[in-house]
């Protein structure tokens, strides 16, 4: 990232394409304030237009306010990223001028112009495949939630193996304490005699419990699906059982996610025939493209990415998500490595589900010590890559403060509870300031 994200407020960050907009750059600290206006040259550079010899002419449509904020008026054409470049020219008397040490410095800020379908949506960072100590994780569901907020997440679901109740426990605890983190119901579904792992994100009832308590009905309905499958489908029961689960999740208003098809123990947990049939029949809502694998298991995510690319090339497109499959937030592995950025109209469950189902999302991999990689449609990848550099650093700083206070509140601190009340709405206010 090439700008001082913590030194300046840039509003808005996202502007409507093909319209004139005013972008305000306001120094946050004394060491970041601008020199006098006659020492500044402003250039607005569209990245997609390529490098021009000599660069664009300096912009005339800007002013330095009495309060030290720089206001830039420009027409942002097309959907693309723009560099706002400020050249701070050399003062006449270097020894007598307080700006001498910053002579010839160039500051670069960036904004993104968006077509209407993206501009009306907001970015939300989420993870909805994780475990608590209620299955094979390490910590209580409510603690997992606090740590996820500290890591910069807008929404999560705790998805324990076979169990829906832990996600409700997290929701209940935080409904009584102030936080803007959105928590939703969830579970990792393991239906009887089916090796396929499936995430139920946001469903209004437990599909695990439905299959367990009504196993006779489950098997009868799965058998009916089996009879509809063509002769090319191997392991017909597993494929049919997975489709039964996908359908039940959607009945509850949830999102059905096909998980880690290339997870390997002594062999792949599900065979290639099952994977092929599920991908070809497309009864799921999204594929867990990346997530859940430690550094020594790098092949599994690579295979999933390669398979996704091959399916798309063959005309079989579907939404993809990144999910951590974390089993502990303090272990230094998996937690925060894989996640999803969703462009949704709000952070309500129905809007998040709609956005993922319609492909307004990308899977993100940011393994500790590495660089971020973004997967999805190219247009989405470009925009979300911009967000990772220019929007999410400040967003995470705000979330980190709230998340740390959430942990203290769980530990019994009344002061932390009061501080959380004072912070309420700060992340949402920052998000809107980036568009308005």
What does this protein structure show overall?
- The model has no long low-confidence stretch (mean pLDDT 94).
- This protein has a six-stranded mixed β-sheet with strand order 11-10-9-17-18-19, with helices on both faces. A five-stranded mixed β-sheet has the order 12-13-14-15-16.
- Helix 2 packs antiparallel against helix 11 (392-410) and helix 5 (215-226) crosses helix 6.
- It has helices at residues 116-119, 141-150, 165-175, 207-213, 215-226, 236-251, 272-281, 298-313, 349-357, 378-390, 392-410, 414-423, 426-433, and strands at 8-11, 14-16, 19-27, 40-46, 62-64, 70-76, 80-88, 106-114, 122-127, 155-156, 182-183, 186-189, 198-201, 255-258, 286-290, 320-322, 338-344, 361-365, 373-375.
- The two termini are 23 Å apart.
- It has 436 residues and is an alpha/beta fold.
- A hairpin with a 5-residue loop joins strand 5 and strand 6.
- The longest helix is centred in the C-terminal third of the chain and has 19 residues, at 392-410.
């Amino acid at each position: 990232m090439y700008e001082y994200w913590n030194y300046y407020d840039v509003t808005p960050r996202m502007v409507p394409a093909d319209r004139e907009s005013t972008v305000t750059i306001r120094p946050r600290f004394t060491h970041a304030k601008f020199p006098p206006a006659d020492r500044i040259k402003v250039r607005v550079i569209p990245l997609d237009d390529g490098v021009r010899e000599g660069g664009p002419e300096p912009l005339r449509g800007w002013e330095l306010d009495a309060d030290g904020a720089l206001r830039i008026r420009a027409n942002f054409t097309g959907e693309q990223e723009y560099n706002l470049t400020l050249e701070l020219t050399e003062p006449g008397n270097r020894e007598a001028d307080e700006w001498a040490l910053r002579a010839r410095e160039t500051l670069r800020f960036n904004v993104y112009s968006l077509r209407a379908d993206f501009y009306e949506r907001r970015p939300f960072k989420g993870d909805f495949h994780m475990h608590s100590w209620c299955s094979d994780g390490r910590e209580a569901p409510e603690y997992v939630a606090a740590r996820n907020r500290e890591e910069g997440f807008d929404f999560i679901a705790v998805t324990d193996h076979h169990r829906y109740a832990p996600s409700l426990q997290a929701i209940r605890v935080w409904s009584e304490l102030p936080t803007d983190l959105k928590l939703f119901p969830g579970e990792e579904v393991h239906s009887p005699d089916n090796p396929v792992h499936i995430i139920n994100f946001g469903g209004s009832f437990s599909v695990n419990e439905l299959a367990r308590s009504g196993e006779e009905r489950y098997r009868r309905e799965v058998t009916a699906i089996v009879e509809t499958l063509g002769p090319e489908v191997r392991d017909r029961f597993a494929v049919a059982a997975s489709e039964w689960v996908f359908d039940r999740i959607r009945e509850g208003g949830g999102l059905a996610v096909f998980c880690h098809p290339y997870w390997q123990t002594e062999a792949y947990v599900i065979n290639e025939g099952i994977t092929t049939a599920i991908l070809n029949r497309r009864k799921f809502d999204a594929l867990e493209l990346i997530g859940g694998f430690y550094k020594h298991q790098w092949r599994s995510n690579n295979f999933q990415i390669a398979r996704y690319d091959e399916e798309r090339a063959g005309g079989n497109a579907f939404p993809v998500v990144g999910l951590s499959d974390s089993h502990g937030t303090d272990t230094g592995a998996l937690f925060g490595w894989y996640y999803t950025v969703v462009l949704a109209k709000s952070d309500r469950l129905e809007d998040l589900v709609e956005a993922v189902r319609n492909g307004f999302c990308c899977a993100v991999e940011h393994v500790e010590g590495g660089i971020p990689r973004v997967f999805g449609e190219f247009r989405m990848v470009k925009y979300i890559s911009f967000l990772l550099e220019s929007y999410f650093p400040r967003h995470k700083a705000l979330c980190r403060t709230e998340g740390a206070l959430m942990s203290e509140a769980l530990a019994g601190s009344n002061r932390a509870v009061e501080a959380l009340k004072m912070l309420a709405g700060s992340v949402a206010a920052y998000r809107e300031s980036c568009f308005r």
